């Protein structure tokens, strides 16, 4: 009963935040409400027994997307109050589609078909890790993860092509010292999440997103000036996840007995997965940071 | 049991709200936000489906969790690309 009450309250809050983000007249308010929406979604993932997603969403949805949207907000023209004439046609159309979707979703049987998760639990001892989500991501369905790293890289390349200049202001001294204090803690937490991913919720994505949020805070305070696309080492770091993944896949193709692409031998699987995850964390962190901050022009005058 | 239907309904309504937001706009940035809300609804639907085994005392479906985790990272990179394009459009409008 108590849990149902929590669910109802959470659902109401999430719906209210989403609705106000869409209907609010002021775009700045909409962006702030959207960030709060991200935090509430993290809570919903935690409630639905998905701690991996909760960790990732807390770093990505609430942190990085917020920073991204604020960067976009700076570039918006000044007149932010907007009035829209509400027309009936789109409302009716969307309401009809939503009602049909609701009807069909409610037909889904409550007891699931356990075949796939049963196979995961049977194959888990051979995967080299003890946490099923990590095993699926980096062993059973490693194609997904490989292509995801490729998508990240493509997004970065695309964003580099469409770059528009952003001015960085010299940091406020309090935020500067706080970001310096926080950075060792963030590196420690990143390492912990990465290592824990083998046996418990955590892993490359959560660790990478967390490291990226730390790097973004430092970069916005005009620290780490070497972190830009001009630096060849940074380019190598952004590529490293994909590179190591593909090289490991080729090794497995040539030297393992099964001769299968992306099939790790059981004896070394744990070490292989940890190696790939370490480089993937680095690549995800650097790529997300460059996506958020871009190539800013620095300005020392403002204090 | 009832919670399951609460989250199914919430996911569907989020998809509906997001779709209407993409239609309505009026600013491009708000359309991108609405698209993200729609994506959150779809992820919520998948995670609720993955939650069903928990009601029967088994662990949640890890394949769906892995898919949604991949989806979160792809969604944020797509958003970043869309916002970079948006910045370019606005810069061109000013010049």
UniProtKB/TrEMBL annotation, chain A:
Residues covered by the MrpA C-terminal/MbhD domain: 13-77
Q: Which domain of life is it from?
A: Bacteria
Q: What is the membrane topology noted in the UniProt record heading this document? A: Multi-pass membrane protein
Give the principal location in a single coarse category.
membrane
* Keywords associated with the record: Cell membrane, Membrane, Transmembrane, Transmembrane helix
What family does this belong to?
Belongs to the CPA3 antiporters (TC 2.A.63) subunit B family.
* Record's protein name: Sodium:proton antiporter
Q: Does the keyword Nucleotide-binding apply?
A: no
* Alphabetical list of InterPro entries matching this protein: CPA3_antiporter_subunitB, MnhB, MrpA_C/MbhD
Can you give the residue ranges of the Na+/H+ antiporter MnhB subunit-related protein domain?
179-292
Which locations, inside or outside the cell, does it occupy? Answer: Cell membrane
- Read off the lineage from the record: Bacteria, Pseudomonadati, Pseudomonadota, Gammaproteobacteria, Alteromonadales
- Enumerate the transmembrane spans: 6-23, 30-48, 54-74, 86-108, 204-221, 233-255, 267-293
TrEMBL record, chain B:
Entry superkingdom: Bacteria
Has keyword Transmembrane helix? Answer: yes
Q: Which InterPro entries match?
A: CPA3_antiporter_subunitC, NUOK/Mnh_C1-like
Segments traversing the membrane: 6-23, 32-51, 63-86
Ordered alphabetically, the record's keywords are:
Cell membrane, Membrane, Transmembrane, Transmembrane helix
List where in the cell it is found.
Cell membrane
Membrane topology field: Multi-pass membrane protein
* Sequence similarity: Belongs to the CPA3 antiporters (TC 2.A.63) subunit C family.
Q: What is this protein called?
A: Uncharacterized protein
Which lineage is the organism of this entry classified under, starting from the top rank? Bacteria, Pseudomonadati, Pseudomonadota, Gammaproteobacteria, Alteromonadales
């Amino acid at each position: 009963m108590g849990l149902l009450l929590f669910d109802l309250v959470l659902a109401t809050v999430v719906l209210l935040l989403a609705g106000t983000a869409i209907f609010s007249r002021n775009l700045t308010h909409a962006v702030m409400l959207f960030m709060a929406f991200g935090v509430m979604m993290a809570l919903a993932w935690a409630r639905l027994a998905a701690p991996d997603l909760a960790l990732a969403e807390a770093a990505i949805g609430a942190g990085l997307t917020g920073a991204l949207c604020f960067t976009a907000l700076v570039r918006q023209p000044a007149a932010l109050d907007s009035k829209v004439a509400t027309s009936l046609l789109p409302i009716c159309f969307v309401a009809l589609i939503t009602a049909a979707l609701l009807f069909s979703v409610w037909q889904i049987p409550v007891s699931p078909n356990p075949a796939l998760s049963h196979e995961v639990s049977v194959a888990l001892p051979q995967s080299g890790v003890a946490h099923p989500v990590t095993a699926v991501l980096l062993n059973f369905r490693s194609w997904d993860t490989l292509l995801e790293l490729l998508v990240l890289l493509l997004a970065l390349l695309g964003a580099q092509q469409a770059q528009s200049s952003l001015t960085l202001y010299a940091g406020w001294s309090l935020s500067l010292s706080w970001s310096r204090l926080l950075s060792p803690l963030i590196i420690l937490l990143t390492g912990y999440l990465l290592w824990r991913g083998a046996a418990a919720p955590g892993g490359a994505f959560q660790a990478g997103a967390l490291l990226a949020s730390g790097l973004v805070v430092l970069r916005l305070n005009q620290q780490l000036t070497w972190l830009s696309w001009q630096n060849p080492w940074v380019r190598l770091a952004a590529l490293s996840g994909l590179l190591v993944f593909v090289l490991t896949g080729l090794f497995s193709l040539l030297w393992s007995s099964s001769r299968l692409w992306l099939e790790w031998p059981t004896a070394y699987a744990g070490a292989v997965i940890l190696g790939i995850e370490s480089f993937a964390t680095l690549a995800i962190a650097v790529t997300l940071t460059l996506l958020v901050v871009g190539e800013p022009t620095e300005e020392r005058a403002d204090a | 049991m009832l919670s399951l239907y609460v989250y199914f309904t919430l996911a569907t309504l989020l998809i509906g709200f997001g779709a209407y937001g993409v239609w309505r706009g009026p600013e491009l940035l708000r359309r991108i936000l609405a698209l993200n809300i729609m994506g959150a609804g779809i992820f919520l639907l998948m995670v609720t489906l993955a939650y069903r085994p928990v009601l029967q005392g088994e662990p949640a479906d890890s394949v769906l969790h892995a898919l949604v985790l991949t989806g979160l990272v792809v969604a944020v990179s797509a958003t970043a690309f869309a916002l970079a394009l948006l910045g370019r459009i606005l810069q061109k409008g000013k010049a």
